[in-house]
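Hi W.,

Here's what went into the run:
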Amino acid sequence: MATIQELERIASQIRRDVIRQTHFVASGHPGASLGCADFFTALYFEIMDHDPKFNMDAKNEDVFFLSNGHISPVWYSTLARSGYFPVEELATFRKINARLQGHPATHEGLPGIRVASGSLGQGMSVAIGVALAKKMDGDKKLVFALTGDGELQEGQNWEAIMFAAHNKIDNLIVTVDYNGQQIDGSNEDVLSLGDLPAKWAAFGWYVIHMRGNDMGNVVATLNEAKQRTRQGKPVVIIMQTDMGFGVDFMVGTHKWHGKAPDDSSNRTSTGAVGGNTGRLSLSLRWCHAPLSQCRYINLSSTIFYNQF
Amino acid sequence: MLDKLTFTEKKATRDGFGAGIYELGKTNPNVIALTADLAASLQLANFIKDFPERFIQVGIAEANMIGISAGLTIGGKIPFATTFANFATGRVYDQIRQSVAYSHKNVKICASHAGLTLGEDGATHQILEDLGMMKMLPGFTVINPCDAEQTRLATLAIAEHYGPVYLRFGRPSWPVFTAPFQFQIGKGILMNEGADISIIATGHLMWHAVEAAKILATEGINCELINIHTIKPLDEELILDSVSKTKCVVTAEEHQMLGGLGGSIAQLLARKLPTPMEMVAVQDSFGESGQPQELLDKYGLGVKDVVAAVKRALARK
Ligand SMILES: Cc1ncc(C[n+]2csc(CCOP(=O)(O)OP(=O)(O)O)c2C)c(N)n1
Ligand SMILES: [Mg+2]
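Here's what came out:
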């Protein structure tokens, strides 16, 4: 069991990785990756029973599916940091001949990925399929999935939501990244989700709220969600996050949904990361030096990262 | 004539679409623009600013967008449904097939970020099958312009044309070189006359065909260059005229070989004028993340690949 402080420290590292990956290739989606870093950290370092040796079949282990595949940077960092593949490979993100595709893919054999995503609205259905298979096999482990909030505008989600309740898929925990933002603006401006928790509840799901950028709350809520499984209803966590959380000039706007920080954003973020663990210091310009010389400095812990 | 095929600026073909739809906003009150949370990528900013009442944001819900577009046509509106090419075709194929194609509705499906040149987002977004899917739908017109100017003209032209249209364009900055040429739906463009071989290209690969022809000219090989922007209906007359003269063909496109322009031309020639032919196209594979030019090279769509294909075709003459 990791302490909340340890988890916060890992989440900070993952946030640095997100910025590094996207800055390095001047593309990718930092916004919601930063917002979801606490969730990913808790899931892979505390909540899920999973095996980084990676077996596609996922027998007798918990599995996770990312439906909003554009936030691949946070997933890749989490997978690397929890031992699925070498951390140095993060430097190949979005480059030609790499396993770290812009959107998660199985095609190049990256450990940790079990289905491609990127075209929105499909991941929950796949997660339901795995959850059904686990039930058929008497496998007691759980299936987790993450979806964006804007992504819920895709009708397929609601087909999946209806199916999961009807079929009592109660070994499934879906989390919604409820950051209120999407590409063309806020959910409210683009296409309102209305009373989202009430909608899930009306479809027959057990609904839990979570403060997604408060590690203590994330861990407690995910544990509560686990308690709620196997009671005849699928479980959904409405996870309130801030897009760009942890980097002051990115926080709370959709502008960084799919835009990488460039050298004009070379500055030190003062945004506190994960409560009181300290600051995320970014010196992006250094990334033009050979990778081995690139480093991030965590001011609070004075740890020097000379690799990813 | 070859040296007239030059460019002074580069622009994305989607910029040409943005300019075209904005002009239509001013001139045609029936034109409605729709998007599925990709207004900026589709260059709709000016249209939205000046014609907000004719802009419809449907959210991330492409199937709904196609259905709404079909409905809008009843009574005379001309909906331009816009999103990335993958989500504009494969994602909503049955909605297009039933509500638009089979029902013969005047919907313009306008799709950006087609093909490998989308770049870093990778294979999930790099559709290479869209021309095939869309050309198979009875009654559909399918257009794949080769630069920003041609895309602008195509955007204007499809508003005047009654019937369902798929207009495909892309993301990268690309040479703008078609200013001297007119645009007419269904009419290919003879860009350069040559006696030795016909290179028939569409979309971004047209520029590679031009560059290849310039290289080949230095080796004494005179290429006839034909631009086919309208994949369907195909300008059979222009193609047959050229091929009956040159007696060998290379096609070039940013698409799977199966189902692309090359396939259409092969079917035409097999029926009417069997001719040695080589195809520059993606060979039954998905793309991947990377920079546009790197990807074109890796997947065999570079200038050198066009040159090599010409030599193979000539050897079979
Ligand atoms: C089917 C489909 N349509 C459109 C897109 C383009 N797209 C990528 S991310 C995105 C916005 C997603 O919003 P949300 O789920 O809220 O994610 P966030 O912006 O919060 O990361 C869109 C429209 C896509 N990837 N797939
Ligand atoms: Mg969102």
